[in-house]
Amino acid sequence: MEPPLFPRESGQFVAELSQDVFVEEEGVQKVAEMLYSLRDSDELTAIGWKNANPLAPVATSDQALNWVFVVDTMNFSFWPEKQTQQCEVTFKGTTYTGYMTLCAAIARAMEEGVPITDPKFFSQISVEELAHVLRSDNQTPMPMLHERHQVLTEGGRVLLQHGGSFHSFISQAGDDARKMVELVVEKIPSYRDEAVYEGKKIAFYKRAQILVADFWGIMAARGEAVIANMDWLTMFADYRIPQALVYLGALRYSDALMGTLKNGELLPSGDRREVEIRACSIWAVERIRARLRELMKERDGRSCGVTSAIIDFYLWPYAKQHHKEMAHIPIHHTRSVYY
Length: 339
Fold this sequence. Notes:
By secondary structure, this protein is mainly α. It is built from 15 helices and six strands.
């Protein structure tokens, strides 16, 4: 089969054929206006990366880059089977749920002296050791322990084959975001986030793109290497951002799909509806970015440096902050190592 379309082209291809998910231009305009009002704030810069995750190590620390690799490699499928039974991890007096349980568990392990960011260690970590690192405060464990173990040890072995650190590995791609994503996807199987839609192979590369964006966030915070082609990255197609885009009116679900999601039906990875939700989210953010650029040119007479990745960095915490107002909009449920 021919190589897959890249994420941006995949988003456009699916959006033009989609049967159950639709990009709404009125909502696109609304979100673009919202972002325009924030155009000079830290929320739309690399600084927002650190602010969005207080558990991330200081960017200048030696562990910061390997921490990003460990977390991003296991960054998938945190939604609970029942809302009343969530995995929880408490660190320094704060109890976390969702993705932040992973960050808190890794921070806790580091404080306990576990060398969890050392590829020599995590390439050989046992399932039992990882279970202890990721242990929950309650009876609900973090989902997909065995899959997390498989992808973490696999990723660690790849790093050991390429210099022994995430920095040495990713540096082989030069300072180019697109080449970095391609390198990650080529070398590490768990990052090959692809599907087939209407006979065409498409790609989302959610975790690979986040990995590169997080690398950029750290390097930008350090004032180090300028990474080219950051605007090649799209948003990171998961289950939280689509909910926010529906809430903000930039996406619309068909009545049939909304009914399916409200019933809590599990969508298999690669299901047509799941693919449409993720791909149309990518395309909605592309439309928002294009409209934001137009607004800045029309009103301010200047170019816009806001990338799709930065819009994602803004929308994800926005979704967390407004989760109560969004509660009537269901997230889609898919168990997968891709997101």
